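Q: I'm writing up a methods section and want to include an example of the input and output format. Could you take the sequence below and give the corresponding predicted structure tokens, formatted cleanly so I can copy it straight into the document?
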Amino acid sequence: KGKDGARTHSSNTTLIPNRYATLAATANAGATSITVDNISKLAGSYSFTNSANYFASSNLASGDLVMVIQMQGADINTTNTSAYGTVTNLKSVGKYELLEVSSVSGNTIFFNCTGSSGLANTYTVGSRNRAQVVRIPRFTTLTVNNNRRLTGMPWNGAEGGIVAIEANTSMTLNGRISADTLGFRGGDDITPDYSSDPGIIVTGN
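A: Here is the clean output for your methods example:
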């Protein structure tokens, strides 16, 4: 804990402290390691819009903290009725756990499992199931100044949608830590094209 030191967010910019990678294969309860699609995505130096490298060691390493979380996979009502979209079986969606890294080899992350039996839950990938790994900065203290904001990468169907921070001693929040609108992708606005229908007259307006 605290390996990334003290941090004060004072710049006039919305910043993203986390890093995200897709779980590459189903990880069963009891497993002591997981594999991600691309380990470089969890490096502090991995850059995307508003990303901030708050990590003492850029590459994921021993003592770092990660979250494993099931993002998608629930069953919904798919009938052409007003009930469409109703969740009929949540399954494991929303389950998560925090794990300390023991070592990294290629795209595989091994955990410190002293006194435990590995993962508490199964995280499933494939078909409609999506799970991800989120790297969490381990601050001693965190201060977010007035009118400043920490947030996360918007969910893109594979990664993002999460804001997670560890502060070992204290957190002073005068600004905001916000996940507003990060977890849902809006639908496309589809405008029908009637031009090929002989029964429809299309005008310039």
